[in-house]
Write a structure and sequence with these properties.
Layout (H helix, E strand, L loop, with lengths): L1 H18 L3 H12 L2 H13 L2
Amino acid sequence: MTGLTAVFAVLVALWLGAMIPGPSFVLVARNAIGVSRRAGLATALGMVETL
């Protein structure tokens, strides 16, 4: 049962990590709110382009 508990704990940690916004989200939100919607979209497109 401890193996199953460990797997469940790892899955919960990964799920929580996927839900928390990262620094890229903060940058896009800052540009969209502080500068303009167009600047936010340009920032998001620039990040997508680098993938």
